[in-house]
Amino acid sequence: MKIHQQIHVQKVFISEKRPDVCTACPDFEPVIQWADDNPVVWHIVTGRRSKAFGLGSCVYIGWAQRSMTPDAILERLRHFKELIDGTSPYHDADSIFRWRAQFTLAHYRKTGFRGGFFQQHDAQYPRGCLTLDYTHETLELVLDKFCAWMGRSYATQNVTVDGKTVRLFKSSNE
Q1: In this structure, are residues 119 and 125 in contact, taking their beta carbons and an 8 Å threshold?
Q2: From CA 31, how far away is CA 29, in angstroms rounded?
Q3: Listed residue (169, 107, 94) closest to 138, CA to CA
Q4: Which of 7, 31, 46, 151 is the most buried (most CB within 10 A)?
Q5: Of 124, 132, 131, residue with least CA distance to 154
């Protein structure tokens, strides 16, 4: 019998800001570097303050939504980075989804930052909906963006945030 000993060298990418997050997957090297260069993104994707991109957000695929494993955190970071960069294969660079990510990144540390469930309503049913982050000072801007995005197939009566009416529309019959 012969015995042959092999030594395998594996490159592991470790965050300088979050040493608990590491991977051997080279695809995540630029993601970790970007997050380390922009430390607020670690807080965005691991905290609950951002309803649009925080822990538990429906924007992430199921397994990455609520887990705090390094793989799940990296998946959330990757998705958020693709939206910020305009390279997401699921949304074009001019979409509200990119705007939403850029808005969250720009405003996350501001006083009163929060997220909410924005929903369009017609006379019978709730229609278009989107989770967006905002501050008290930026609510009107975010509402304007949501209203520009929401579907025009229905006569909108009002828009709510977390069930509270925040904008009313005149009926076409008036």
Answers
A1: no
A2: 5
A3: 107
A4: 31
A5: 124
Q: What is the pLDDT of residues 124-144, one digit of tens each?
A: 999 999 999 999 999 999 999
Q: What is the DSSP string of 97-123?
A: HHHHHHHHHHHTTSTT-EEEEEEEE-S
Whether residue 167 contacts residue 143, with contact meaning beta carbons closer than 8 Å, is answered with: yes
Exposure pattern of 127-145 as b/e (b: 16+ CB <10 Å)? bbebbbbbbeebbeebbeb
Compute φ and ψ for 151, nearest 5 degrees. -60, 145
Work out the angle at residue 56's Cα, subtended by the Cα atoms of residues 53 and 58, and round it to the nearest 5 degrees: 70
| CA-wise closest residue to 68 among 29, 60, 131 | 60
By C-alpha distance, which of 66, 65, 105 is closest to 84?
Answer: 105
pLDDT in tens, 104-121: 999 999 999 999 999 999
- DSSP, collapsed to helix, strand or coil, labels residue 53 as coil
Beta carbons of 154 and 128 less than 8 angstroms apart:
no
